[in-house]
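Need tokens for this chain, all 253 residues.
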Amino acid sequence: MISGFDCVLKAFIATLFTWGCTALGAAIVFVFGNVNRKSQDAMLGFSAGVMIAASFWSLLLPCVEYANELNMNAAFVMCIGFVFGGILLFLKESLLKEKKTAKHSMLMFSITLHNIPEGLAVGVAFGSLINTNDLSTLSNAYMLALGIGIQNIPEGSAVSLPMRRNGFSKRKSFFYGQLSAFVEVISGIIGALIAVVMKHTLPFLLSFAAGAMIYVTVMELIPESQGGENPKIITLITLFGFILMSVLDIAFG
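Here are the structure tokens for all 253 residues:
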């Protein structure tokens, strides 16, 4: 059996990985002063597909399975959690519009805030391992962390590159780029602790995290990726990201 301490430790290590992926993306500022729009769109489109697949296979599907095991109404729990996750991000976006800050600060603030539910999702996924040896559950948690890590790479560059263009040094641009994802480590630990202490909240927390992640994907990643000259090609790349993540989840889940 996996203890509560092990669950939290695994969540901590997993979110360190997702944070590291953001740092990797932010480090591109040391190699390139800029990345062309087509490449950015492709990375964001691919990330959107990965996020949608991870939300279903690693969050919503386990939500239904856990709800059934706990004799809960799976459809009700999934819908309520999913809607609340979306509403939380909607309120965040509404509050963000009221802030009058520089564009690069707004971007960093937005990405930092939406990293919170991502870290929470990873934490909850690993927290769900409490008192189980189910390799499928463990694989789902690892695949979710991998999916979020993949989509964090372009996010890191999305913060560092604009800051570099606005006159920040490479070191400062990198620093703020990687800093935007450190909240994932904190929220990941919190998510794991909640899942470990309150087992019956697991299905709700999983669907809640999925709703927040889908909101971010539809509201930010997809529109941003579709703003260039080749939206149809980017759509195909998004589909490829979904298929690739789905295949990985099915193969290792």
